[in-house]
From TrEMBL:
Domain of life: Eukaryota
Pfam family for this entry, one: Ig_3
Keyword field: Disulfide bond, Membrane, Signal, Transmembrane, Transmembrane helix
InterPro entries: Ig-like_dom (IPR007110), Ig-like_dom_sf (IPR036179), Ig-like_fold (IPR013783), Ig_Fc_receptor (IPR050488), Ig_sub (IPR003599), Ig_sub2 (IPR003598)
Region ranges (Disordered): 858-883
Organism: Betta splendens (Siamese fighting fish)
Residue ranges, compositional bias (Polar residues): 858-872
Protein name (record): Titin-like isoform X4
One GO MF term attached to the UniProt entry: transmembrane signaling receptor activity
Lineage: Eukaryota, Metazoa, Chordata, Craniata, Vertebrata
Length: 972
């Protein structure tokens, strides 16, 4: 392929812009072009086939590419192609480039500016100038690629060509500045009003400026360069920074025309030394202080001095003195010194002066108590300050003065305080708060109480005594504490108070000498008091069921157990106006008894009793105990209870009617169930003096009447049985009088009587025939006891049948019988003594007293058996009297002989150590029995050995009975 074909481009530019025009010409260089078929190729593809020339007008960016031309000879079919030409059509217009000579010229000089467009030509150029007052103005026109300017400003150019005209981008801006020849100087103005605020003024002067309006440019020459422009010829700068300052002026109308920079004016800043005399960390009102600024300067007259407080001038000289500081003098102090010839400023910086109110010294001790022979360290200080010396006082007397040490040691108790002093003249603090130091003496204090009772109850009066051992003739005042709380007792040795719930705790006391209030004993060991709720009394009565004329033993116990009590005994009397009882003191109980037991002799009728206990001075009483009842079947004419049906045992759902009779119109029926509490018939239907009940639950209960006039009726025991064996015994509720007849029978749950019944008396079979009833035609005392029946494999519960002596058989025991009985008792006593002495000759002997009988309390289930008055163990001697005295058999005489001491001592016996007493008490009784009861009270310690035969646990009785016999063949 021949390449001598030439493709040309007109205009021959390397780069075109949209809108330009371009012409391609193809020269085949062989013959005429008309001999050839010519075509144009763009980017390897046929583009144009119409002649040897191609014009593109206007150009677009899509015309960019590689162009060639090719020819095919019409005659010889010869072909050839030109070399490629690359056409570039730029999407962005090109940017003009401006070059300049020196950018700063003097007034009257000029500078050459040149504009061009790289890689292309054919451009015409336009020039523009911009100042602070004009945005863009033409600087030149035409085809000038170069111009000369003598004005300052910001210049730029642009290229233009084609039709319509196409513009390049603007060139970069070039600033041309004009420098004036005016002389410029700068000065520093050190004015005190500015200096004390930390400022100075820098002033700029332009000579020959005429009417030119200037703006001023400022610049520092040291450290970090700072530039500033102002419209005034001065600039306010910091007085605390060293450095040089220079300035120049710029024409306000032509910001590119300015003077040269002035010479720099130097400012020197250094530190001054402000001192306080005296030097303190803190000052107080009334003290003096002197301020000194840079005393080391040799030529003080060349310097000006100012003392500043909180930004305000207070003195113009060094050595300023405040004679008496106040709190208003507190603040931040600073001094300045100025050397005007050298523009030198000295600044001390701020120092804070703190002035506080007059201080109070602080006194502390390592202990507030001086042990016997010991010492205590006192320390005095003034917080937040120093330079003090100390004075020490004891009870207003100066004991040490002007000590540099802030501590001393003391050996005497007292009230101490201190103060601090410093300076000349001496400035004193306020006196410290006093510290009391006590001196302990070796005497020991002890708390004692009046009664050594283990329990104390609310409401009791407590008396505590503070005793000081080996106190001698010293007069004391006393202090008391309960726990950690001080208690006032007015300095008395005795502390008397009433116990309350808050009285429990530990009590201590100490003594303080009256002649030296700072000398005292140590606190005593604590005495612990335990205060409990009000004490309660529990009363028991034994026996609970009486035989006629039997004795009743009452026992009263305080719960919780404690000592020191006296006991008061009362009989309950029904109160018709209330639902309760009133209490009447029993004989001999007016002043109370030391023992918690009381014996009722010849007791006959139902009665209730209460007790209470008392102790202390003034007297503290417990609450009354709950009532304990003693029941009797004997009928009192003033009040009697009848039961219908007159039987002891009942089935559930049986109806029972209880009726009260006597000399009263107000009645209530009382019920004391087994395992229950005392109640009234108000729970059931009542009609006048009668109470009707329907048995609903099994169990036993005692019933009796109480009249509004204050009488108790006889008591009855009623038991209710569920179906169980389905058989009950029908026996009388009330005691049967001797000589009368009685009939016992059995009853089935169905209400029928069984056909064949066996009867038992005290577990002995007494009737086993076909009779269904047990009939006794003439009841005697021997018929008393427990009865039950058996039928068809069923056994009823047993019931007690009591027998009372008939009134006709009662009589008084002859006097001779009493005398004989006393003699017999004396003989028996003598035998006992001889037996005991015989035992003592062989070995040790001790007597152990016990209590027999059933104990009954009102809040436990009562036993309703009516034989509890029978002695459980004992030795009986019976003498049958065949003669009827014809006197009331209810009269019974008791003789009680108490052996109060059987004392044994292995050493020689003194008469007072082993006394034997015999107390013979003749008591009236209500039965035809005569008992001799010997009691022994043993108060000595139990020793190892065998018990004496005469000192057993049993009681000794001598019984004399009238000539009533138990006939084994009595009618049944």
């Amino acid at each position: 392929m021949n390449h001598d074909t030439v493709l040309t481009l007109e205009p021959n530019w390397s780069t075109f812009v949209p809108g330009d025009s371009v012409t391609f010409t193809c020269d085949m260089k062989e013959g005429e072009n008309t001999d050839w078929e010519i075509r144009f190729i763009k980017d390897g593809r046929d583009y144009y086939h119409y002649g040897s020339g191609l014009t593109l007008n206007p150009l677009v960016t899509g015309d960019s590419g590689k162009y060639q031309c090719a020819g095919h000879h019409k005659i010889n079919s010869h072909s050839k192609t030109s070399k490629p030409i690359y056409l570039t059509v730029s999407a962005e217009p090109p940017k003009a480039r401006l070059t300049a000579g020196p950018s700063t010229i003097s007034v009257g000089d000029s500078v050459r500016l040149s504009c061009s467009v790289d890689g292309s030509d054919g451009w015409k150029y336009e020039w523009f100038r911009q100042t602070s007052n004009t945005y863009v103005t033409p600087a030149a026109d035409g085809d000038n690629r170069e111009i000369r300017v003598s004005q300052g400003g910001v210049y730029a150019c642009v290229g233009r060509r084609g039709e319509p005209a196409f513009d390049t981008q603007y060139s970069e801006y070039v600033t041309i500045k004009i420098t004036y020849s005016n002389y410029v100087s700068v000065s520093l103005q050190l004015d005190w009003t500015q200096v004390i605020r930390g400022q100075i003024t820098v002033r700029c002067e332009i000579q020959g400026g005429g009417d030119t309006q200037w703006v001023y440019d400022w610049e520092t020459t040291s450290g970090q360069t700072i530039t500033q422009r102002t419209y005034t010829n001065y600039w306010t700068v910091s007085a605390f920074s060293s450095g040089g300052y220079r300035c120049r002026g710029t024409n306000r109308q032509d910001s590119d025309s300015s003077t040269r920079w002035s010479e720099a004016a130097a400012l020197t800043v250094s530190g001054a030394v402000l001192t306080f005399d005296p030097i303190r960390s803190r000052y107080f009102t009334g003290e003096s202080v002197t301020f000194t600024c840079d005393m080391k300067d040799d030529k003080r007259t060349e310097w000006e001095t100012r003392l500043i407080k909180d930004g305000e001038e207070i003195a113009s000289y060094s050595g300023y003195r405040i004679k008496a500081l106040s709190t208003e003098d507190s603040g931040r102090y600073q001094c300045f010194r100025v050397h005007r010839k050298t523009n030198h400023i000295k600044n001390s910086g701020t120092i804070e002066l703190i002035v506080s109110d007059k201080p109070r010294a602080s006194l502390t001790s390592d202990n507030t108590v001086i042990a016997a022979g010991g010492s205590v360290k006192l320390s005095c200080s003034v917080d937040g300050s120093d330079g003090w010396k100390y004075d020490w006082f004891r009870s207003a007397a100066l004991i040490r003065t002007n000590t540099e040490s802030n501590s001393i040691r003391i050996t005497d108790g007292g009230n101490y305080y201190c103060r601090g002093g410093r300076g000349n003249p001496v400035y004193y603090t306020q006196n410290s708060v006093s510290v009391t130091v006590e001196e302990r003496v070796s005497n020991k204090a002890a708390v004692k109480r009046q009664h050594d009772w283990p329990e104390i109850f609310k409401g009791e009066e407590i008396t505590l005594t503070c005793e000081i051992q080996a106190g001698g003739d010293t007069e004391w005042e006393y202090e008391w504490t309960q726990g950690n709380v001080r208690r006032t007792a007015d300095g008395r040795k005795l502390w008397v108070f009433t116990a309350s719930g808050s009285s429990s705790g530990d009590y201590k006391c100490r003594g303080r000498q009256k002649t030296n209030s700072y000398s005292s004993t140590a606190w005593s060991d604590p005495l612990r008091l335990t205060v409990t709720d009000k004490a309660q009394c529990v009363l028991t009565a034994s026996p609970s069921w009486l035989s006629p004329g039997a004795s009743v033993a009452l026992s009263c116990e305080v719960e919780p157990p404690s000592a020191g009590w006296r006991f008061y005994w009362y009989q309950t009397v029904p109160d018709g106006s209330h639902s309760s009882y009133r209490y009447e003191l029993l004989p001999g109980s007016e002043h109370g008894t030391e023992q918690g037991s009381y014996m009722l002799d010849g007791h006959t009728h139902t009665a209730g009793y209460v007790c209470r206990a008392a102790r202390g001075e003034p007297v503290y009483y417990t609450d009354y105990s709950k009532a304990a009842f003693v029941w009797s079947g004997d009928v009192d004419p003033s009040a009697s209870l009848t039961v219908s049906p007159d039987i002891v045992q009942h089935f559930t759902r049986d109806s029972v009617s209880l009726s009260c009779e006597g000399n009263s119109t107000e009645w209530r029926v009382r019920r004391f169930p087994e395992g229950g509490f005392l109640s009234s018939c108000s729970y059931w239907t009542t009609s006048g003096s009668r109470c009707d009940i329907i048995t609903s639950q099994s169990g036993s209960a005692v019933f009796w009447c109480e009249s509004g006039s204050g009488h108790f009726s006889n008591s009855v025991n009623i038991t209710v049985h569920d179906v169980g064996p389905g058989l009950i015994l029908m026996s009388p509720v009330r005691p049967v009088t001797e000589g009368l007849s009685v009939s016992l029978s059995c009853k089935l749950k169905t209400g029928q009587k069984p056909s064949s019944v066996f009867f038992y008396h005290n577990e002995q079979l007494i009737q086993n025939d076909s009779r269904v009833e047990l009939n006794i035609s003439a009841v005697s005392k021997s018929h008393e006891g427990f009865y039950k029946c058996w039928s068809q494999g069923r056994e009823s519960p047993q019931s007690w049948m009591a027998v009372n002596a008939s009134k006709s058989s009662n009589g008084h025991i002859p006097v001779m019988l009493v005398v004989g009985l006393v003699c017999g008792v004396g003989l028996l006593l003598l035998l006992l003594l001889l037996l005991c002495r015989f035992r003592r000759s062989k070995g040790s002997c001790y007597i152990r007293p016990t209590h027999s009988g059933t104990v009954w309390t009102s809040n436990t289930t009562p036993s309703v058996s009516q034989n509890q008055n029978q002695p459980e163990t004992g030795i009986y001697e019976s003498v049958n009297d065949s003669e009827n005295t014809g006197k009331d058999v209810s009269d019974v005489t008791y003789s009680v002989i108490e052996l109060k001491s059987f004392e044994q001592n292995r050493r020689q016996h003194k008469p007072a150590e082993s006394p034997v007493y015999s107390d013979l008490k003749i008591r009236p009784a209500d039965d035809a029995l005569l008992y001799v009861q010997v009691k022994h009270k043993d108060k000595r310690k139990r020793v190892k050995g065998k018990p004496c035969a005469a000192a057993t646990d049993e009681l000794l009785y001598s019984q004399v009975k009238p000539g009533t016999s138990f006939s084994s063949n009595a009618a049944m």
